[in-house]
TrEMBL record:
Principal localisation: membrane
Subcellular location: Membrane
Transmembrane segments: 6-24, 31-56
UniProt xrefs under InterPro entries: TM2
Record keywords, A-Z: Membrane, Transmembrane, Transmembrane helix
Domain spans labelled TM2: 1-52
Organism lineage: Bacteria, Bacillati, Bacillota, Bacilli, Bacillales
Pfam families: TM2
Protein name listed in UniProt: TM2 domain-containing protein
A GO term from the CC aspect: membrane
Entry keyword Manganese: no
Topology with respect to the bilayer: Multi-pass membrane protein
Length: 67
């Protein structure tokens, strides 16, 4: 699935604990899993790591990346 790099990175960093970036990338099952376990703090850590990794992904001419 192709998504906008900047939007995905910001969603992962700020709302990653709730799985919003997974819903944005059309990965609903993972989004629900992140949301269910948001109270543990683990999805937040994973979301921040995913945001950092997204910074280093190469975007196409439209600014999209494949996730």
């Amino acid at each position: 699935m192709k998504v906008n790099k900047i939007i995905y990175m910001l969603l992962a960093f700020f709302l990653g604990g709730l799985g919003v970036h997974k819903f944005y990338s059309n990965k609903r099952k993972l989004g629900i899993l992140y949301f269910v376990f948001c109270w543990t703090g683990i999805p937040e850590i994973i979301g921040i790591v995913e945001a950092i990794l997204t910074v280093f992904k190469k975007a196409d001419s439209n600014g999209d990346i494949t996730v």
